[in-house]
Amino acid sequence: MPHIAAPPPIARIGAASTAFAAALLAAICVAPARAETLEQAAERYRPAMIENVERSLAGARKLSDCIAAADVEGARKAWIDARTGWERAEVFTSAFVPDLDREIDAWPNALMGFHAIEARLFGANATDVRDQTDALIYHLEDLSVKVHYINLLPQRLLNGTARLAYEVGENKADGGESRFSGTSLDDMRNNVAGIDQAFATIFAPSLAVRDATLAAAVQAKIDRLKALVEVPDLTRLEPDKLRAASEELVLALQTAAPALGLRSPTLEEIIQ
Asked: Out of 207, 211, 228, 248, which residue is the most buried by the measure of CB atoms under 10 Å away?
């Protein structure tokens, strides 16, 4: 693991992204009355997580139907649909349900979950993954229940955001984890979309009120990461730049934590 240096002074940032601008406008609108708490913002974020988890579960159920019909192409499409919802929800899953996260998305030594299915479905052109698919549906159903009712602690959501930012740069920058399916680049894009959504919904409005320059700095780091994964294919990905951008975003989130009244995520919490 590369050493992460102390955060540099944050320079003045230019025009913010559309997502940040919307969050800033929302913060300005509520400021004259009573500012929204992070707990309230986390509840506004819950429907997005529910939507992502339900998309993943619907894809897994469709995968099961296609496997029963020996429909390889249909099964592959369903797997990709399920994967999209999952990758966008990882801010939540890694921070709140790590055991389920491992059952659903173990990698590289995957005996069950997404990648065990992927290896057979895409790597061997086979549909003999009934047991693995049933297990995936079972764990996603468990996740679907939890995402509706679990207490969304802002600290843990910040930890999950920082952890996913680190994972994009450190664990996926050298080619990604979905190599059989060829969706590694989409995995990273959906991860960054999930990070962007979490920051804009939960943290940006409060941070913009307390330190607008810092809020814009964090958003600029997210936008940089987003730009680096918007390439035509993995051969055009620049791992060193992606890794650096990932670390810079982690540092920016750590710097923002005290302004939000939260504790800065530790390296142990980020890389576990």
From this structure: 207
Q: Does some domain include residue 28?
A: no
Angle at 16 between CA 15 and CA 21, to 5 degrees: 125
CA 218/CA 120 separation, integer angstroms: 40
Q: What angle do CA 106, 63, 90 make, to 5 degrees?
A: 40
What does the alpha-carbon distance between residue 53 and residue 56 come to, in Å, rounded to a whole number? 5
Torsion, Cα of 44, 248, 6, 175 (10° steps): 110
Domain count, the chain: 1
Q: Do 142 and 93 form a contact (C-beta atoms < 8 A)?
A: no
Residue 238 · residue 228 · CB < 8 Å: yes
What are the backbone angles phi and psi of residue 103, rounded to the nearest 5°?
Answer: -65, -35
pTM for the structure as a whole: 0.84
Domain presence at residue 39: yes
Q: Which letter does DSSP use for residue 45 in this model?
A: H
What is the block-wise mean pLDDT of the chain (272 residues), using blocks of 10 residues?
A: 44 46 51 72 96 97 97 96 93 91 84 92 94 97 96 96 90 67 89 96 97 97 96 88 95 97 87 72
We report the CATH number of the domain holding residue 243 as 1.20.1420.20
Burial of 257 (0-12, 13-18, 19+ CB in 10 A): buried
CA–CA dist 263, 157 (Å, integer): 12
Is residue 1 included in any domain, yes or no?
no
